[in-house]
C-alpha cells in the first residue's frame, strides 16, 4: 500500500473515525525530461524575477493576486491561516444523498480511506455498513492544500472511497455546445440503438493503453541500441473517409458483429428499441420496415436473375464449344 497522503478523521455526528487518505489510482504515463540537444544536459526551470533578472530562493517568494497587469495584491501565509476553513484534519459529513443525484462531471479525484489504527475498525465498519444498506453516499467538507473542499464518501467493495467534488459554480454549462435541432430517420435511430447493443460489454477491464505499450517498446529498443520497432497499423480507424450516416451505422454494426464472432444471421434477431416521445407512437415504423423488406426482396430477385442469366450464358458457351470440338474431330 502506498504512503498516506493525508491523515485525519471522519466526523460522523458524534462519531470520530481516524483515517488515512491513500490515492485510489496510479499514474502509469511515461514522463519525459527536457534536455540540451547538443550535450544532453538537463534543462531545469528556475525561478527568476521579471524586474531584476535574479534567481530567487524559496524564502524570497510570496503569494499575490494580480488585479491588473500593473497591480498585484500580496497575500501572506498568516492571512491565509485566518481564513474560515474547516478543521484541517477532519472530513466532516454534512448530509446523505442518493448516488444518482451527484453529476459524474463534478467528480475530480478519488482516494481510498484506510482505517487509522485498530480503534477505528468498528466505527469505520459501521459507517461502511450504513452507507451500503441505505444505498446513499455521504457529502462531506474538508480542508486540503489551503482550500475548502467538497467530497463524497462511497463504498467500494470493503473500503470507503473519498471522491473530491467540484463546487457547483465550477461546472461549465454545456448549453451553448448542444447542436441545433436536426431531423433523424427512424431507421437511423434503430441502427444506432442496435450498434450500442452490439458493442455492449460487461465491464471495461480489458482495455489497454496501446500507446504506452508502444512507447515502452520504443524506449527499450533505443536503450539497447536496437532499431525502433515499426509501429503497428491501426486497422480499426480509417481517416479522411466521409460516409453517409446510415451507411456508417450499418458498417459499424457489421464490424462490431465480426469482431465478436457473431454470424451474419444475427441481424434478423437483433432487438429493436423504438424511440418514444411523450406517449406518441413511433413514426410509421411498420411502413419503414416494410419498405426495407421490399427493397431486400427486390435486391434478391435482381441478384437471382443476374445469376441465372450468367449460368445460361456459360451453358450456351460450353455447348457451342463442345459442338465445335465435335466438328473438328470429324
Low-confidence stretches: 263-300, 303-307, 313-330
Tally of DSSP helical segments:
6
Helix content: 25-40%
Name the helix and strand elements from N-terminus to C-terminus, one letter apiece: EEEEHEEHEEEHHHH
Largest sheet: 7 strands, mixed, barrel
Explain this structure.
- The protein has about 325 residues and is an alpha+beta fold.
- It has six helices and nine strands, in the order ββββαββαβββαααα.
- It has helices spanning about 75-80, 120-135, 185-200, 210-225, 245-260, 285-330, and strands at about 5-10, 15-25, 65-70, 70-75, 90-100, 105-115, 135-145, 145-155, 160-165.
- The strands form two sheets. Strands 1-2-6-9-8-7-5 form a seven-stranded mixed beta barrel.
- The longest helix is centred in the last third of the chain and has 45 residues, at about 285-330.
- It starts with 5 loop residues before the first strand and ends with a helix.
- Residues about 265-300, about 305 and about 315-330 have low confidence and may be disordered.
Question: Which helices and strands appear, and what pairs or packs with what?
Answer:
Blueprint lengths: L5 E7 L2 E9 L39 E6 L2 E5 L1 H5 L8 E9 L8 E9 L5 H14 L1 E9 L2 E10 L2 E7 L20 H13 L11 H14 L21 H15 L25 H45 L1
Parallel strand pairs: 1-5
Antiparallel strand pairs: 1-2, 2-6, 3-4, 5-7, 6-9, 7-8, 8-9
Helix pairs in contact: 3-5
Amino acid at each position: 500500500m502506498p504512503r498516506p497522503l493525508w491523515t485525519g478523521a471522519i466526523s460522523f455526528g458524534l462519531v470520530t473515525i481516524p483515517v488515512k487518505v491513500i490515492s485510489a489510482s496510479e499514474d502509469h504515463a511515461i514522463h519525459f525530461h527536457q534536455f540540451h540537444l547538443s550535450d544532453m544536459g538537463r534543462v531545469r526551470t528556475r525561478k527568476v524575477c521579471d524586474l531584476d533578472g535574479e534567481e530567487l530562493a524559496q524564502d524570497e517568494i510570496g503569494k499575490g493576486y494580480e488585479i491588473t497587469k500593473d497591480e498585484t495584491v500580496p497575500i501572506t501565509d498568516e492571512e491565509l491561516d485566518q481564513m474560515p476553513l474547516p478543521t484541517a484534519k477532519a472530513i466532516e459529513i454534512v448530509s446523505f444523498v442518493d448516488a444518482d443525484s451527484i453529476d459524474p462531471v463534478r467528480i475530480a479525484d478519488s482516494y481510498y480511506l484506510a482505517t487509522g489504527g485498530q480503534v477505528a475498525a468498528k466505527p469505520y465498519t459501521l459507517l461502511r455498513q450504513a452507507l451500503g444498506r441505505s444505498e446513499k453516499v455521504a457529502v462531506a467538507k474538508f480542508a486540503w492544500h489551503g482550500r475548502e473542499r467538497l467530497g463524497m464518501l462511497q463504498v467500494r467493495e470493503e473500503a470507503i472511497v473519498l471522491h473530491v467534488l467540484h463546487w457547483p459554480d465550477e461546472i461549465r454549462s454545456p448549453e451553448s455546445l448542444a447542436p441545433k435541432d436536426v431531423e433523424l430517420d427512424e431507421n437511423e435511430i434503430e441502427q444506432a440503438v442496435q450498434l450500442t447493443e452490439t458493442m455492449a460489454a460487461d465491464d471495461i477491464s480489458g482495455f489497454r493503453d496501446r500507446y504506452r505499450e508502444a512507447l515502452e517498446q520504443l524506449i527499450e529498443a533505443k536503450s539497447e541500441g536496437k532499431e525502433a520497432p515499426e509501429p503497428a497499423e491501426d486497422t480499426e480507424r480509417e481517416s479522411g473517409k466521409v460516409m453517409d450516416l446510415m451507411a456508417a451505422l450499418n458498417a459499424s454494426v457489421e464490424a462490431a458483429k465480426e469482431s465478436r464472432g457473431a454470424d451474419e444471421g444475427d441481424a434478423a434477431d437483433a432487438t429493436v428499441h423504438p424511440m418514444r416521445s411523450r406517449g406518441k407512437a413511433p413514426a410509421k415504423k411498420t411502413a419503414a420496415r416494410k419498405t426495407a423488406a421490399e427493397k431486400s426482396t427486390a435486391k434478391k430477385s435482381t441478384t437471382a436473375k443476374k445469376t441465372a442469366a450468367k449460368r445460361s450464358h456459360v451453358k450456351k458457351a460450353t455447348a457451342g464449344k463442345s459442338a465445335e470440338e465435335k466438328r473438328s474431330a470429324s
